[in-house]
Amino acid sequence: MWGCSNDSTNENRNNNTNIPSVEAVQAQFGALPLEERLSGIVRAKNQVDIYPRITAPVEEVYVQNGDQVEKGDPLVRLRDNEYRERLRQAEANLRINKAQERQARASLNEVESQMRRQVILTERELSSEIEMERVEAELESAEANLELALAQVEQAESSVMEQKDALEQAMIRAPITGTVGQRSVEPGMQVNTNSQLFTIGNLNDSKGVVNLTERMLGYISKGQSVDIYSELMGDVRLEGEVSRISPFLGAGNFSTEAEIDVDNTRDILMPGMFVTVDIFYGESEQATIIPLSAIYRHPRTGETGVYVAPGFGSETEPVEQVDSSNPPPLSDPSAVEFVPVNVIATGRESVGVSGVNSGDWVITVGQNLLVGGDGSAKIRAVSWGRIINMQNMRPQDLLRSIMEERDLANQQSLNNQQES
Fold first, then answer.
1. How many structural domains comprise the chain?
2. Residue 17: what pLDDT?
């Protein structure tokens, strides 16, 4: 833009004219890739948060942030005196119940012996019916006592297992192989089941997580291509595909999560990092394709359209780079006109329209200079690559580039004045 205005200023001084300078690209014909741009968050593969399963003070911490651990490696040791005492009490209670079981079994054996003798006496009519009923009642009571003793033993054994498990939980171990992060535990701290101690994940492989609305589920599906990028990643773009989509919509927000597996062996992505995710889900119908920057809303009529240079030569060779110190030449004044268009499909960098033909030269830089003019401009033909690069520049980067070119032009002008 500065290159155009600089040329225009110099020529205006020399020729005393007021013809604006603009840049233009040639419209193409084709289909636009359809995409959905979403914001996502990065998570490590198998990323898990580590919480204690018991309440106790921390005795020792064995790992630091960034440490690589294997599954089963010790992370934290909690004070276990109380749990050891509980285990001893549970084991003593088990021994008591086992002794009561043996006692109940011995009593049952004795009553069963009495029952056998009573049966013999009854068969020989040497015992009364009342005596038989008494022995039967004692047998039934002895069997119930043994059943109760067995249940108490089983309960005591369960208590011992529970206390052993609690004692084992005093040593917190890594549930997976990965890298330790977000350490928030120190020796002496009192922790409970709500205290997050670490996060562990596999940093070699990451996944991006995005939210899909109910409407998006109609055209976004597993296996579709994805681009992931971020300001922190510079010009790096990671490719992937939609790996999984949860089939359940969240209550109230009517959205679900989609996951994108990404090979992160270059350590580009960090867990918790926010990224931009472009999901490509098809192509638009065939149409005339122009850069997004060519679309212009006329300030007087409010119509959406483009400025076209109908008489601009098709033999013109577009330029890739514009050096402000030595810019490519502009054309002779060419006719330009505003043409309303209908937008058929919009992509990230270009738009499909009707109302403009393939091969037409459309103005992409300097449209505001044409409003109210005499319908002519000096045109520099530039490549699609130059315009796309400009469109992808962040506002602060574009402003910095313009300021640098302006300062360079001012410095050259000052040097020329000093030489003269």
1. 3
2. 53
8 A C-beta contact, residue 324 and residue 1: no
Distances from the Cα of 288 to the Cα of 22, 109, 353, angstroms = 21, 99, 5
Poorest-confidence range of 92-101, 124-133, 172-181? 124-133
> Does residue 50 form part of some domain?
yes
142 exposure class (CB count in 10 Å sphere: 0-12, 13-18, 19+): buried
Residue 417, burial from CB neighbour count under 10 angstroms (0-12, 13-18, 19+): exposed
Percent of the chain at pLDDT above 70? 85
**Residue 61 bridge partners (DSSP):** 76
Euclidean distance between CA atoms 102 and 104, whole angstroms = 5
Res 101: pLDDT: 94
Q: What is the CATH number of the domain that holds 212?
A: 2.40.30.170
Q: What is the CA radius of gyration of the chain?
A: 41
pLDDT mean across residues, the chain: 84
Measured CA to CA, the distance from residue 331 to residue 315 in angstroms comes to 12
Same domain? For 52 and 115 the reply is: no
33 forms beta bridges with: 283
Provide mean pLDDT across the span 62-87: 94
Residue 258's pLDDT is what?
A: 95
- Residue 231: pLDDT above 70? yes
Q: Which string of DSSP letters, residue by residue, matches 299-316? A: TTT--EEEEE-TTS-TTP
Summarize pLDDT for 236-253 with one digit per residue, the tens: 888 889 999 998 888 777
**Residue appearing with tokens 């043409």:** 339
Whether 403 and 292 map to the same domain: the answer is yes
Query: Whose structure tokens read 């040639």?
Result: 26
208 and 307 in a single domain? The answer is no
Residue 112 is assigned to a structural domain of this protein = yes
Interatomic CA distance for residues 391 and 379, integer angstroms: 19
What's the 3-state SS for 184-214?
A: CCCCCCEECCCCCCEEEEEEEEEEEEEEEEC
Q: What is the DSSP string of 371-399?
A: TTS-SEEEEEEB-HHHHHHHHHS-HHHHH
| pLDDT of res. 15 | 46
Instruction: Say if pTM beats, i.e. exceeds, 0.90.
Output: no
Domain that holds residue 147: 81-168
Is the same domain home to 52 and 97? Answer: no
CA distance linking residue 365 with residue 293, whole number of Å? 7
390 and 290 share one domain: yes
12 and 160 share a domain?
Answer: no
